[in-house]
Design goal:
The protein contains eight helices and two strands; from the N terminus they run αβαααααααβ. By secondary structure, it is mainly alpha-helical. The chain has a two-stranded antiparallel ribbon with strand order 1-2.
Length: about 190
Amino acid sequence: MNTVPSRADEGRTRRVWDPLVRVLHWTFVAGVAAAWVTSEEGRALHEPIGYVVAAAVALRLAWGLIGPRYARFAQFVRGPGTTLAYAGAALSGRAPRYVGHNPLGGWMILALLALLAITAATGWGMTTEAFFGDEWLEELHEGAATGLLGLVLLHVAGVVWSSLQHGENLVRAMIDGRKRPPAAGDVDAA
């Protein structure tokens, strides 16, 4: 799959996701995968990976407030009514295409960031003198990590569904930052 847009593609696409959003997204992908692989036998790597992920979460939260249009939470986090209406339309196969993140995707981002933060915070807590060896904190850490894995699977399923539904390669868009411009019926809300 060629992820570098040609000049012809650039005339038919527009930049949606900025480089920092894309780098942070793939940092989360790599960090979660690496943390999962090192969770039992790779403790020497597991903790530094957690710190990288924690820093990435903090940066993404800040970028969600001050970043460019499509990075901002205000652009893609919708209220319950809009989100439920979108979910109903998605279940019936009639969900509109969003140029940025759709309402379910927006809430998924918040849920993923929350579980990443909880997982990182509880992992850090287990290294402190105050909480070292506390079983409840380790169980919370493992529960958050397991929940995170479940959300990741739902996220991937949503990306596949939306890509098929709208004929758009969202993985490629998260690599090169480009998507089709809005057409009739698409949503490009600020």
